[in-house]
Amino acid sequence: MKLINLSSRGARAKLDELFGRRNQSYERAIPVARRIVSSVRKGGDTTLRRYASRLDGITPQTPLRISSDELSAAWAAAPTELKAALQTAARNIRAFAQRQLPKEWSFAPVPGLSVGQLIRPLDAVGCYVPGGRYPLPSTLLMTVIPAQVAGVPRIVVASPRPAPETLAAAAMLGVTEFYRFGGAHAIAALAYGTGTIAPVNKIVGPGNAYVTAAKKLVAFDCAIDMLAGPTEIVVTSENGNPQWIAADLVAQAEHDPDTFAVFVTVSATLARAVVSEAKQQARNNPIAREALRNNGYAVVTRISDEAHAITNRLAPEHLTVDSDADLAWVRNAGSVFVGPCSAQPLGDYISGPNHTLPTCTLASVRGGLSVTDFLKVITVQQYAPAALNKLGPAAVTLAEAEGLHGHAAAIRVRLEGARA
Hints:
Structural class: alpha/beta
Radius of gyration: 25 Å
Distance between the termini: 79 Å
Helix content: 40-55%
Order of helices and strands: EHHHHEEEHEHEHEHEEHEHHEHEEHEHH
Number of strands: 14
Shape: globular
Largest sheet: 6 strands, parallel
Strand content: 15-25%
């Protein structure tokens, strides 16, 4: 990790470099992803299977769709301890998502007018579950469960080389449509359909650079949750435990060599201790070691307000702070972990809030994946004659001011009829 002390000469330039290092590696993947997406969109099942054979190692005899028998067998073979852990995580994730559900409501702004909103689920969603360096059954839980809580009738999962743990999680949740391929070709298949795979309305879930690039390419034809880059962690602390802080930095850094890991503090002594601890703890973790070497920083500020401003400007995916009093200054973060016992990996698995979170400063405009990503709000309005007579003349005035005389006429004819 690199130490940046803002009291030192040249530190501001180094800080600007830090802000400029937000990785958008998916941009480099767009030309390849564009070829794959276009090919699958045109070629359907034949092209999809060609890419699945080349990139996912699927033989011509292997069915692309995983059978219910294979899913059930994975659950039956799962260790008892894993089953219990999956069930605990699912229970907490489901309980959190249920509390996120928006409500239907209506009210009368004037007598005779009822306005309100309906809440309806999307018809079909695709949940992408990475299957690269690590099996990620936790991501399957985090994407499928909010869709189930929202009431989505068709939930499709795609994952390259899905691990037995991921299949077991799918079986536990009752997933019935699961495909064993990934990458940009999976995104294209979910977005456009291929013949045997019907398209979905929205694609959610994290992925590598090619998955993210493909999501960007299909976003105007099929809704997506967000463009998520490599993992990010920021810890902002004045008096934390350096060993525990370093442990969280290393934990998130092991996701990807491009992980962005930053410690912000007013204490130079604490910063040096965290840098030393992180180096020690990452010594046998090559991915974390590379990430911390390339994108790891400890920033020492002169005052707390400066530390807070830097943190909000970073708008991190994961943020740890010292106490709940710090929540008052937090404006931009995907998910916040409060206090020394709140290890960030607890949020990756078991707490309940979603671990599919915004990166690359997207946390300045949205939070993580939630049940609302699988719902749509439909507004409703109903006029009785009394409300028409009260509000209609003002609406006619506004329509005529805009030069939309047909709008005005549609209201006026009803006014005349209501008065007859």
